[in-house]
Write a structure and sequence with these properties.
Phosphothreonine lyase fold; Phosphorylase Kinase, domain 1; Transferase(Phosphotransferase), domain 1; globular
């Protein structure tokens, strides 16, 4: 997020010139090679051959000592010809140790790659002695060497990949030559086959033998984890009382000002002591040190967060809410807001500013009473303190001090309990006007919205200086204009000069070279080509995509996250030779243990192998055979069971692939297998009290295209083309009603409104409409039909103008995205499907429906 205020970008592109470490700009000795990748600078000695894997050493020191420590690292590595890499700047080192940085990788300032045990021991002894006294965050994935800032673990030196649960992951090689995942978890482990030097084994044994006094608490459940530490529900062993332990890791979990978790924990302790006795604040019970981490022991608040209540109670997430539903919810929400306001008044009366008010920091007890939690950002009202953390939907950089911080957050909360989309204002505060319009759907008391508007206006006035690229988008009455505006905006973001991405998407673009269908260039190009918009850069972009695909590791084969999807796109756009080259790579990689799914697994790869106008190849038939045998319980070549149900990751995707095999061969056994696959996904669904069909995911009920009931209905619709079945018809009919909801958190295709729009366009018989029959922003009118026109109009809730052209945020809601899964390309495709009834939901599911003469017979039939 730090590299670009408008789009998600790699930290490697952050503007950090002023904070670069001196070593980043030094010239290495003769013969040394220097390369930079992802914000890391690698120094490699001349004529050195590194092993593919081994014991690597990480250096972790605090920011103020980083430059000096790197000088010592350089001196040691150059003298002893050891390859090493390091973070290029103080700013990137801070990002790598932020509160929500990846816990397994956090704190690593430099990494050293010794070629043998002798070099490893020399690093630990000699460099360790030079760095003695330096302190830094504990590297959770590693073993600390004594009490210094050096950490080590066994892992890969070279870039190798394998597949783990459908996902390509970094790999190491077992002694028998098998590639296995290089586990990078926030706990130190050693593969049972890895060679362990004697001096490392002795140190591991010494660490294991250490004992610490156990505190009188038993941890029952982790409520939250971050790089700063955890929040745990625990039992006080002295009296059986349930408490909450709030953990702080020293030197870790930095905020924007570089303050660590321990400092913030002390701040919370100070504020809770000042607020003692208030019913709206947790009681502070104790403070303790456990190993090197510190904890606050606080009263456990029974109940759930306001965020949870919104997800469970909000009436607009259900089809056809009644006026009584809206009235009851409004009364409940207003009572919560009144209590929060009263709680803030009590906190302010003690001279304290809460500083971090948002829906996850408001607890609601079973009896309905409100409690404010998480005071690590609280401060005294007259204190010269600026909060450096905060929820983007409830904080603004234009208010940094005093009780006005809470006043602004409360105004956002008043709005968010009815329209939980306030993060949209982080890119453009004009979006508040749209959200206030949507809030008129509720029977609010006179003056309620005016008060919100006045409080926001006071906080945000005067407007930010300078020309803003992101502004409010005026939704046109003729919605056919949306396609041209959105497509032009997507094309304008292209960066063909870059090699890591062509179009800006969600964070998922970077692990796959910015090339794939879901988050990369392939999905954007597919959407632009499929909608038939003016696209003069098409050939240039296809050339870029072909080059990027050749750089992808062999394990990246999936339809939506790898080579198969890129090959399918190249084939459909006339690049048959390039497509064939990539499909050959897919064939050679099928020995990996892929799951059945459409997104990353065998069904998606199989769909790509089914090239239009050609007979089904043997490898596609073999994939189908494996899937069908797995469904019947045959264990000869079983396919791993998917981790979750749905179209992209469950058995619904294989149901579509097996149906395509029936169309390609005429063999009815493939249809029987397809129906079996779909029934397996339906086992994970549940009906609510009104008969609506959802995928069950713990307490959540999902209806999205990716892993919800909408995707299952797409598969059912595909099967209905080949024979009426009442249970299939029931799925389609029920889901068509289920997805007719007003509020959807995200706009995108996989997990948002665009996916519901595309599904509704496939499942309903409403005629196409170019103009909206709805009121402003899709508000319901009594005479308005639902389904397709309603979803289309309500895309305006999330719409921006970027340089005057239509644009949408991705799944973070904090940056504009153009990708297929979450951003503009997927929304473009859904709008096109809605206006032109193309029956297209996702790429390459729209195969011809003719049935070929009977050919290959399913072995399992």
């Amino acid at each position: 997020m730090i590299a670009d205020p408008v789009h998600v970008d790699s930290p490697a592109h952050v503007a950090d010139t002023a904070s670069r470490f001196p070593l980043a700009d030094q010239t290495p000795p003769d013969g040394w090679r220097v390369a930079e990748h992802g914000g890391w600078i690698m120094w490699h000695p001349p004529h050195a051959q590194l092993p593919q894997q081994g014991w690597k050493v990480h250096v972790s020191v605090n920011l103020d000592d980083a430059a000096d420590a790197l000088d010592l690292v350089r001196e040691h590595c150059v003298r002893h010809r050891i390859a090493f890499k390091f973070q290029r700047s103080r700013r990137l080192a801070l990002v790598n140790n932020e509160k929500y940085a990846h816990r397994a990788g956090s704190g690593k300032l430099a990494a050293l790659y010794p070629a043998d045990d002798t070099a490893l021991r020399r690093i630990l002894d000699d460099l360790g002695a030079q760095l003695a006294g330096y302190r830094g965050p504990y590297v959770l994935s590693d073993l600390r060497w004594h009490d210094g800032p050096l950490y080590l673990r066994y892992g890969g030196f070279a870039e190798l990949w394998c597949v783990d649960g459908d996902q390509p992951v970094p790999a190491v090689t077992r002694p028998d030559g098998t590639l296995v995942p290089d586990r990078r978890e926030p706990v130190f482990t050693v593969p049972d086959w890895a060679p362990v030097p004697d001096f490392v084994a002795e140190h591991i044994a010494a660490v294991d033998a250490q004992t610490d006094d156990e505190p009188p608490y038993r941890i029952e459940e982790a409520l939250h984890h971050s790089n700063a530490g955890g929040v745990y529900r625990a039992t006080d062993l002295r009296d059986g009382r349930t408490v909450v332990l709030r953990e702080a890791r020293p030197h870790a979990g930095l905020d924007g000002a570089g303050t660590d978790a321990l400092t913030r924990l002390r701040r919370e302790e100070t504020m809770l002591r000042r607020l003692a006795g208030l019913d709206c604040v947790p009681q502070l019970l104790d403070r303790l040190t456990w190993w090197e981490h510190q904890f606050l022991v606080e009263e456990h608040i029974e109940g759930d967060t306001l965020q949870h209540h919104l997800a469970m109670r909000h009436p607009l997430i259900h089809p056809d809410p009644t006026h009584q539903d809206l009235t009851d919810y409004t009364a409940w929400a207003l009572d919560v807001i009144d209590q929060v306001e009263a709680a803030l008044a009590q906190v302010h009366a003690r001279g304290v500013v809460f500083g971090d008010l948002h829906t996850a920091n408001v607890m609601i007890r079973p009896d309905g009473r409100v409690v404010l939690v998480d005071f690590e950002q609280a401060y005294l009202a007259d204190e010269d303190f600026t909060p450096s953390l905060g929820d983007p939907g409830f904080a603004t950089p234009r208010i940094r001090r005093g009780p006005a911080v809470d006043t602004y957050a409360l105004a956002c909360l008043r709005l968010a309990v009815f329209v939980p989309l306030t993060p949209l204002a982080a890119l453009c505060d004009e979006k508040f006007d749209d959200l206030l319009t949507v809030a008129r759907r509720f029977p609010l008391p006179p003056g309620y919205l005016d008060r919100i508007r006045d409080d926001l206006h006071t906080a945000l006035n005067p407007p930010a200086p300078g020309r803003r690229r992101v502004t409010r988008f005026t939704w046109p009455a003729d919605q056919r204009r949306l396609i041209d505006s959105l497509a032009a905006g997507i094309r304008a973001t292209a960066t063909p000069h870059r090699t890591d991405r062509l179009f800006p998407g969600d964070p998922g673009q970077f692990p796959h070279g910015g090339a794939t269908l879901a988050h990369g260039a392939a999905g954007v190009i597919w959407a632009l080509v499929n909608t038939g918009v003016d696209y003069p850069e098409r050939d240039e972009h296809l050339d870029w995509l072909t080059r990027a695909a050749r750089r992808l590791p062999a394990a990246h084969l999936g339809l939506y996250d790898g080579l198969a999807g890129i090959a399918a796109l190249l084939d459909r756009t006339g690049r048959h030779d390039d497509a064939g080259e990539l499909l050959d790579r897919c064939r050679t990689g099928l020995h990996h243990r892929y799951g059945p799914g459409l997104h990353s697994g065998l069904a998606g790869i199989g769909l790509a192998l089914l090239r239009p106008g050609r007979p089904a190849p043997d490898d596609a038939l073999h994939i189908g055979d494996r899937l069908a045998r797995t469904l019947t319980g045959d264990t000869k070549q079983p396919v791993p069971e998917p981790a979750r149900p749905g179209l992209l990751h469950g058995w619904s995707g294989p149901a579509i692939f097996l149906t395509r095999l029936h169309e390609a061969t005429g063999d009815p056994a493939w249809l029987r297998a397809a129906r079996t696959a779909l029934r397996r996904d339906l086992q994970h669904t549940v009906r609510d009290d009104n008969g609506n069909l959802h995928v069950r995911d713990g307490a959540r009920r999902l209806f999205y295209l990716d892993e919800g009931s909408a995707g299952i209905a797409v598969a059912a619709h595909t099967l209905l083309r080949h024979g009426e079945r009442q249970w299939l018809r029931d799925v389609v009919t029920t889901v068509r009603r289920t997805i007719d909801v007003e509020f959807v958190l995200l706009p995108g295709l996989f997990h948002g409104r665009a996916g519901l729009l595309a599904t509704a366009a496939l499942l309903t018989d409403d005629p196409p409409r170019g103009t909206t029959p709805h009121g402003p922003l899709g508000l319901v009118r009594d005479d308005a039909p639902h389904h397709v026109p309603a979803h289309l109009a309500r895309l305006a809730w999330h719409a921006y103008a970027l340089d005057g052209r239509l644009a949408f945020p991705g799944d973070t809601l904090l940056r504009i995205s153009t990708d297929l899964a979450a951003g503009g390309a997927g929304i473009l495709s859904a709008i096109h499907a809605a206006l032109h009834r193309t029956a297209v939901t996702l790429p390459f599911l729209d195969a011809p429906t003719h049935v070929a003469p009977t050919g290959h017979l399913l072995a399992a039939s």
